[in-house]
């Protein structure tokens, strides 16, 4: 079974007395074999669209984070 957990929420500007103009939610999503990135993105966007009604002028975007992982032997991969 795939799982998803919110690991971070960042609002900017970060002042307590200012309404933020940007909010970033980081989700650690452990997917099952066979689910490719495009299908995973489509499912997440559909899930959010059903649950979040955005007022005029606001938008929601979903992106994958990518990082380069390198072994001590020099083998590297961007994931």
Fill in the keyword field for this structure.
single chain; 79 residues; alpha+beta; two-stranded antiparallel sheet; 1 helix; 4 strands; extended
Question: What does this protein look like?
Answer:
This protein is of the alpha+beta class. The chain is 19% helix and 32% strand. Strands 1-2 form a two-stranded antiparallel ribbon. It has a two-stranded antiparallel sheet with strand order 3-4.
Biggest β-sheet description: 2 strands, antiparallel
Order of helices and strands: EEHEE
The outline comes out as extended
- Which structural class best describes the helix and strand composition? alpha+beta
Count of structural domains: 1
Using only CA atoms, what is the Rg?
A: 16 Å
Record the strand order, biggest sheet. 1-2
Helix content: 10-25%
Give the overall average pLDDT.
88
How many E strands? 4
From the N-terminal CA to the C-terminal CA, the straight-line distance is: 21 Å
Residues in β-strands, percent? 25-35%
User: Low-confidence segments, ≥5 residues, pLDDT <50?
Assistant: none
By DSSP (H or I, 4+ residues per run), the number of helices equals 1
């Amino acid at each position: 079974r795939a799982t998803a957990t919110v690991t971070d929420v960042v609002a900017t500007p970060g002042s307590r007395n200012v309404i933020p103009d940007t909010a970033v939610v980081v989700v650690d999503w452990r997917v099952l074999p066979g689910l490719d990135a495009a299908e995973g993105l489509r499912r997440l966007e559909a899930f959010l669209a059903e649950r979040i009604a955005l007022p005029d002028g606001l938008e929601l975007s979903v992106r994958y984070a990518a990082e380069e992982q390198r072994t001590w032997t020099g083998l590297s991969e961007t994931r």
